[in-house]
Amino acid sequence: MVQEREPSAGGFRARRRGQGELEAQVLAVLREAPGPATAGWVQERLEGGLAYTTVVTILSRLHAKNAVSRTRSGRSYRWLAASDAAGLAALRMRRVLDSEADRDAVLASFVSALLPDDEPLLRTLLDSASEGPGRTAGGPSAGDRPADREG
Q1: Is pLDDT above 50 for 151?
Q2: Which residues contact 100 (CB under 8 A, 6 or more apart)?
Q3: CA atoms of 95 and 107, how far apart (whole Å)
Q4: DSSP 9-70
Q5: How confident is the model at residue 105 (pLDDT cuts 50, 70, 90)?
Q6: How far apart (Å, rounded) are the C-alpha atoms in residues 63 and 80?
Q7: pLDDT tens digit string along 47-60?
Q8: What is the mean pLDDT of residues 106-129?
Q9: Model pTM above 0.70
Q10: Which of 129, 144, 139, 135 minimizes the C-alpha distance to 94?
Q11: Which residue has the higher pLDDT, 134 or 130?
Q12: Counting Cβ atoms within 10 Å, is residue 54 exposed (0-12), middle (13-18) or buried (19+)?
């Protein structure tokens, strides 16, 4: 829970973090590190008085998502951010997309729900991604998708 308080019927209660909020906070702290950092270093810089084991759990989850890398340091690890908050959100979006059976329908629904200002930005990003190795979208390039290999 976060230290901030929200009003409730009987006084105040602690506000719950949103999904992915804690991971984003841990990543932000890790990105400020001058180099690979210990979980204890991260814990000291996080607000909310999190337990050391909670920080290690979050770092381990981020590692499983390839958002951080780690190197052995004695009996523990030193952690290094491999992604930022936007990259972490993109990984979550990709995982959701990969878990759905009808990928086309999911993408069509996503595109149809975009805000008007998002559409030109998405078109620009898709155009730059299709231009070659300098892509930033992180998705498969032409020829990497199963549909492109069949035939």
Answers
A1: no
A2: 106
A3: 13
A4: TTEEEEEPPPTTHHHHHHHHHHHHSSSSB-HHHHHHHSTT---HHHHHHHHHHHHHTTSEEE
A5: very high
A6: 10
A7: 888 999 999 999 99
A8: 90
A9: no
A10: 139
A11: 130
A12: middle
- 22's tokens: 């804690």
> Tokens in use for 10?
């009987």
- Is residue 72 within 8 Å of residue 11, measured between CB atoms? no
Q: In whole angstroms, what is the distance from residue 54 CA to residue 25 CA?
A: 13
Task: Give yes or no for a contact between 59 and 68, defined as CB atoms under 8 angstroms apart.
Answer: yes
Give burial (CB, 10 Å; 0-12/13-18/19+) of 78. Answer: middle
Residue 37 has φ and ψ, to the nearest 5°, of -125, 155
